User: Which sequence fits this backbone?
């Protein structure tokens, strides 16, 4: 790599966003792993932008890359935490910054790839400016969460700050509490704080967004969920429950895991009903994730159907980026 070509000492970063089941892992394998068919073998290392792949023991439900791929294509920011630890967007950005610098220092290109648009947007544009926590307000809202439950506080957030509520799940206690905390502390809704709209200057970005036709994406999601059940998702969840993780554990709020805690009795708890709920939740989440990738400066949107032609379109854009660097 000829770093002298890069203006101002910026670190080049390739960013690849696509929702679940689009085929990101297969695409990364084709593009970057050390097989004879790879386009850019040995040139890159992956930084996972998946908010739930950071959790250990959650492999099937988060569709982590398999050991074969990990052995030939290094992945970072997976298996960092136990499911009862909170991992925030600030944690992601700070860790991704450190890993990007380390990868680039070894002459490789960092590739930030995943489907958590909230994390990727924050990495590209920077973290939004929000106030420091007020300990008393935080304690008050935490107590309310314990006594009143997330549904009631989420309804309150919807009435106060519908824009924030639209991108927070009703069971995401941490982010509901934080949004209410900001309002109670400052008198301003969280979504009113200045959002950054320009790319961070420390990096030279190439941002590729894969957009799959909705019906195709939904079919692939359904197939992905079926495969997860065949691979032992229920057994994985049961093991996590036996290890003491509950519905309140941050990792257990992930799609594919939270549904096992949401049923109460009778037919609602059958494996088939849970399977259908995971499919529905996954489809809704995939639609929502594109919201965060709107208006990203200089992003390249590529229609993607998993075909060789679509793969070549992605490869061509990456090649243009690499031509500037190598």
Assistant:
């Amino acid at each position: 790599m000829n770093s002298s070509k890069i203006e101002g000492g910026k670190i080049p970063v390739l960013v690849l966003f696509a929702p679940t089941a689009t085929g990101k892992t297969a695409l990364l394998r084709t593009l970057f792993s050390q097989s004879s068919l790879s386009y850019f073998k040995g040139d890159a290392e992956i930084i996972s932008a998946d908010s739930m792949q950071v959790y250990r023991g959650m492999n099937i439900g988060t569709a982590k890359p398999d050991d074969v791929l990990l052995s030939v294509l290094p992945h970072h920011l997976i298996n960092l935490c136990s499911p009862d630890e909170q991992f925030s967007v600030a944690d992601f950005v700070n860790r991704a910054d450190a890993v990007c610098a380390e990868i680039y220092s070894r002459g490789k290109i960092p590739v930030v790839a995943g489907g958590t648009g909230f994390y990727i947007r924050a990495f590209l544009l920077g973290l939004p400016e929000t106030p420091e926590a007020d300990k008393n307000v935080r304690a008050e809202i935490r107590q309310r969460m314990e006594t009143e439950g997330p549904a009631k506080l989420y309804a309150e957030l919807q009435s106060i700050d519908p824009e924030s509520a639209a991108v927070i799940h009703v069971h995401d206690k941490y982010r509901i509490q934080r949004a209410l905390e900001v309002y109670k502390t400052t008198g301003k809704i969280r979504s009113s704080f200045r959002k950054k709209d320009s790319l961070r200057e420390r990096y030279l970005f190439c941002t590729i967004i894969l957009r799959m036709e909705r019906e195709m994406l939904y079919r692939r999601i359904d197939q992905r969920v079926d495969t997860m059940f065949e691979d032992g998702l229920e057994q994985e969840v049961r093991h996590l429950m036996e290890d003491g993780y509950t519905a309140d554990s941050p990792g257990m709020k992930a799609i594919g895991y939270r549904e096992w805690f949401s049923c109460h009795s009778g037919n609602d708890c059958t494996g088939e009903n849970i399977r259908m709920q995971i499919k529905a939740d996954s489809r809704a989440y995939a639609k929502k994730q594109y919201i965060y990738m709107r208006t990203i400066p200089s992003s390249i949107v590529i229609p993607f159907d998993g075909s060789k032609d679509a793969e070549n379109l992605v490869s061509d854009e990456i090649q243009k980026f690499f031509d500037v660097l190598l």
